[in-house]
Amino acid sequence: MPRYVFKLPDVGEGIAESEIATWRVTLGERVTEDQPLVDMLTDKAAVEIPSPVSGVIVALHGEAGDKVAVGGALVEIETEADDAGAAVVDAIVAAPAPLAVPAPAAAAPASTPTPVRADGAKPQTSPAVRKRARELAVDLNQVAGSGPRGRITLDDVTGHLPAAPSSATPSDDDAVTAIKLIGLRRKIAETMQRTMQRIPHFAYVEEIDVTELESLRLHLNQLHGAARGKLTLLPFLIRAIAKVRGRFPQINATFDDEANIVHRHAALHVGIATQTPQGLVVPVARHVQKLDLWSTATEIRRLADAARSGKARREELSGSTITITSLGAIGGIVSTPVINAPEVAIIGVNKMVERPVIRHGAIVPRLMMNLSSSFDHRIVDGFDAAEFIQAIKSLLEHPATLYLD
Hints:
Blueprint: E1 3-7, E2 17-23, E3 30-31, E4 36-41, E5 46-50, E6 55-60, E7 67-69, E8 73-78, E9 89-91, H1 127-135, H2 154-160, H3 183-198, E10 201-209, H4 211-228, H5 233-244, E11 253-256, E12 261-264, E13 270-272, E14 274-276, E15 279-281, E16 284-285, H6 293-308, E17 322-326, E18 345-349, E19 353-359, E20 362-376, H7 382-397
Parallel strand pairs: 13-17, 17-18
Antiparallel strand pairs: 1-8, 1-9, 2-4, 2-7, 3-6, 4-5, 6-8, 10-20, 11-12, 13-16, 14-15, 18-20, 19-20
Helix pairs in contact: 5-6, 5-7
C-alpha cells in the first residue's frame, strides 16, 4: 500500500514553526479524510490540523511539546488510494520507522561488560562529567557512552552506579510527579515571565457598591433572560469602560516598547480572560462600543465557548486594547492581575459580598465588590489610573447613567 507523509501546512502569516500541543490520533488508528490529527500551538492560538486523506496512521513525527517547522514531516498515513489529492501530501519511497513509545528496558545483567573501545582510547566526555565520575568513584573506561560517537553523558555515569539498597518502604508520601510544561501552559509561563520582567505594574483597588446595578441586572434577566439570554456583570462593566474611554485615551492603548511608540485606539476591543481546560486564554470582543448589553453578552458567551472548545480563530485571540479578568464567585477580595501586553491596563473583577455599610448615617446591608486593576506605570500615571476607575465606579453605582449621553 502507498505511504504518504503529511507535512505541516502554513498555519499563519509569518509563522515558521508550530508546537505540537495534543495528538488526536495514535499509531495504527484508521482515520478518515478531514478527521482531526493534531492540535498545533502557535504564538496566538491552538490550530486543529485535519487529515487530508483516509488511511492508517503508521508514523507520528514528534510528541507533545516538540516544535515542527512549516513544511516538516508531521504524520505518515498508509492509504489504499493511488492519489492523495492534496498538494501538502507527498509520496515517499522509504519511510522512516514510526515513532513509538519505547518498550520497558530489559533487566540489566548482574555485571556490566567492558564496553568495546580501541586500546588506549580515552573515553570521550566533558570535564564536568569527568569530575562527577571521580566523585562517584566510577571508572569511565567501564562506562558505555550513549551520546554522539559514544560520548559519555552524566546519565551514563549515574546509570553505571549499582542500585542503593532501600532502608524504607516507599509510600505515597514520597511520590514526586514531574510534569513538563508544554503547549499552552508553556506559552502562558513564558508570557507571564516576559510581562513581569518588562512592565512596571501599578495596582489600584477600589470598592464599588453594586446593589443598584445587581438589582437592575436581575430585573432585566427576569424580563428578557429567557428570550435574549442572561446578563452577567461584564456587559455593564464594558459599557462603562466604553463611555469613559474618550476621557482616558492613554488607557485604551497598546505600547510597543521596542519602538517606544504608544498606540491610542479609538475603538474598544476588550480581551476577556477565559479559563479553559488547557489554561488561560484571552479571546477578544471587538468594537464593543457599538454593542448593546445583550449583544455584548452574546459575544462574550460565543468567545468563551470557542476558547474552551479550542475552536477560537487566531484573529479572535489577538488585537485587544484592554483586558477584563474575573474569577466570578471565587474572585476573592483583592487580586493583582498581570497586564496582557502590549496593552497598558487590565481590570480584575472580584466577587460580590453583602455586608453592613454606613449609608446616610445608618447601618444598612449593601452588595459590595472590588475592582482590582493593574496599569503600565510607564504609560499611565497613578492619578489618571485612579480617575479612570473612579469614573467607572460612578457609572456602576448609578446604573441609569450608563444610558445617558
